[in-house]
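Lecture 7 notes: from sequence to structure.
We start with the chain below.
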Amino acid sequence: MATANGGTSGSIDYDLDIAHPNISANGDVDYGAMKFPRDSNPNGLAPALQSDPGDVAGPWLRLAVQKGAYTRASGGSPTTNDRCELRDGKLDLGTPVIYSFELRAEPDFPVVDARCVCAQIKAPYYDLDNGSPLVALRIDRGRYIATIEHLYEPKDAPIKNGSERSIYLTPYHGSCAGDAARAFDHHVFPNDRGDFQELQVRAVLATDADGIPPHLEAEFTFCTTGVKVTRQSPLPADIHEWWQFSIAVAPTAKKDEDGVLQLFVGKRGETPRLVATARGELGHAGYPDAAINTGPPPGEGKQYFKLGPYRDKWNIWDSGVAAIHVRNVTRRSWAEGVALREAANRA
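Predicted C-alpha cells for the same chain:
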C-alpha cells in the first residue's frame, strides 16, 4: 500500500516525485516525501521543474538562492542565512538509511571563498535535531568538499590548570596520523543547559584530488580522533556535470557508542565508488540521567535529510544566483549499516 512518503506501508523508502507537486496558497511546495516550506526558505527561489532536450534521465529541479529573492520568510534564520531546501520526514535517531540523488551545479554558480551546503543530514547534538549537520556535501570556491560532525562534550576536554585538555584534538601540522581527520573545532561548552552551546567538532570527510580550498587552511587547524575517517577516492572535480551521490548512515543509536557513515559517488547507470567511511559518535542519543544529560532525552532524538542550497548571508556572494539541479532523489533502508555499526563498536 502506498504511503505519503512515496514508499510502502511500514517502509521508510521513497522515490521523490518531482513532477507532480502540490502547491499551497502560502507557497509551500509538497512533493510527498519532501517539502519546500516557503516561510523557512529566506531568499530561496521557488523550486522549478526543468529538463534538458534529449536527456532520457528525465526532468530535474532547479533549487536556487539569490540576494533579495524572498524577504518575507520568518523561519530558516532569515537574518543570517539564505536557503532553498527540500526537507523530508524525520526518523528516529539511529535509523540506518541511504539517501541517493543526482546533482550538478549551474554553469554560473559563484566561485567565492565561502561554503554553500547542497545536501545535509541533521541529527541531535544538544537538542532534538538541531546544530550543525551530521554530514554535509558542500560547494566551496567552486569545488566539492564533504564534512562530518562528531559529538564533543565537556567530559571530552577536562580542564587542567585553567585550560581544556582535549582527549581527541591535537594541532594540525601538515598531516593527521592514522585515521584521524583534519578538523575545525567550533564547540562551545555551557555553564548549564539554558546557555548557548555547540557540542560538536567538524571534520573533513572528503575533498576532490586537490584537497581543501586554500581559504579553509586557517579554519581546519586541528586533527581529531573523535571521528575516524578512511578515504578511498576523491570527490569529483567538475561540479557542473551530473553526479550521483549516495550517503549511507547508521547514526549513533546508544549513548557513547559509534555510528557509521559511507559516502559514494558515480555516474548514472554505473556502480558507484566508495569515497570515504567514517566512524564516531554521530549524534547525541542522550543520557538516561536527566541531571547530567546534555542532549535530548533517550529515544526522542530525530534525524532527517535536507536537499538544496544553504549559505550564510555574506557580501562575498554579491547578487548572483547560486543554483543547483537535482533529480532521482531516493531514500532506502540500509540493512548493511546495522552490521557495520555493530562491527565498529566491537573494534
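Points to note: Confidence is low (pLDDT under 50) at residues 1-9. The first strand starts at residue 14 and ends at 15.
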